[in-house]
Amino acid sequence: MRDAYHEELDALRVDMVDLARRVRTAMSRASRALLEGDLAVAEEVIDGDDDVDQMRRDIERRIVDLIARQQPVASDLRVLTAGLRIVADLERAGDHAVHLAKLARRRYPMTVVPEPLRPVIARMGEAAVGIAGELEEVLATADAARAASMERHDDTMDALHRALLREMLETPWSYGVDTAIDLAYASRYFERYADHLVSAARHVNYQVTGQWTAEVGDLA
Amino acid sequence: MRDAYHEELDALRVDMVDLARRVRTAMSRASRALLEGDLAVAEEVIDGDDDVDQMRRDIERRIVDLIARQQPVASDLRVLTAGLRIVADLERAGDHAVHLAKLARRRYPMTVVPEPLRPVIARMGEAAVGIAGELEEVLATADAARAASMERHDDTMDALHRALLREMLETPWSYGVDTAIDLAYASRYFERYADHLVSAARHVNYQVTGQWTAEVGDLA
């Protein structure tokens, strides 16, 4: 039988998967809002951010409480401190979906994305949603090998980011400086969203193996 | 006489002030690199980031260790968990100084900033350095009232950010889409740098008073 401590750890894991799912849904909607100029969907993403923040706070509070009550050492402490980093990364990924939704809202009823650049922006949205879906499974299964393999997504999104900038520089620019600025921000938000999810995956790998897949900060 | 626990808390505070000082110096140099196209200074900022990351990890490790060993409750737990947020904010502020330095390096031997926009970018750099200096004092003195007053700096930097975007839209644009993109990013980096320092100040206020000066996430 599982003791109360491990039951609480299991509950934390379930809630982290739920948080990741919300952050994925937010990105899916934010991409749609951006491409289609859909104000209602943009508002959903923006309004949903309070729940994401609240879930992060709730999970953090429970983790700190476990550290203080259980005085865990070694691998148990590692799981908990890495958990703090995972929920911080998830929340910050969610913030970037919100930034995209706010771009869409600010431009409404126009859309942010000029026709020639729609395909690359759509690919960025699909990549971001795919990365979030993969992270959900990694969180649910604590699969270290799969978590480590998520490192490749840094390259996926960097390549799309560079492709967008290149297309912007190669497109005869009749869309104004404001559109150039918005697209630069949009591209950055997709990229940072992916960065945070890859960072979260790195912390899952660390929870399981105690090893870093890349040079990043560690808590414990 | 102070016990070992409070001596460790004092040592943590000293190290947080030191971390804030490094993050201020990084911004001062990054602004100079950006405005003057100074490659050597840009490289200093970029190379210095490892030290900042290492200091964050060191402080975090000591805080988690104190939570596990001392099982603090109430205000002691609040001080420690808020400390985790403060060092995370400081490190992320430092990352934005590095982003600015990398922009400068990428454009070298050209400079990022067209002549008409130099004044507003210079003001952003000065504001950012000033905010960091104020945070150092807030950290050193644990002055809650002064920490709360740092909220105003969100407006300071937002106003400069909007001023830059407005000037970009009003300037007949002969500087290319690439310069528009770089300036959009630079402005965002200054703004995010300030955001993180204001967030750190908010956590100092919370350490002392247990109250939030604005709606933000809390750990404990």
UniProtKB/TrEMBL annotation, chains A, B:
Key word Transport present: yes
Compartment list: Cytoplasm
GO cellular component, one term: cytoplasm
SUPFAM superfamilies per UniProt: PhoU-like
InterPro entries attached to this UniProt entry: PhoU (IPR028366), PhoU-like_sf (IPR038078), PhoU_dom (IPR026022)
Record's keyword annotation contains Cytoplasm: yes
Superkingdom of this protein's organism: Bacteria
Domain PhoU: 18-103, 121-203
Keywords: Cytoplasm, Phosphate transport, Transport
An individual GO BP term: negative regulation of phosphate metabolic process
Function: Plays a role in the regulation of phosphate uptake.
NCBIfam families: phoU_full (TIGR02135)
Family assignment from sequence similarity: Belongs to the PhoU family.
Description of how the protein assembles with itself and partners: Homodimer.
Name the UniProt record assigns to this protein: Phosphate-specific transport system accessory protein PhoU
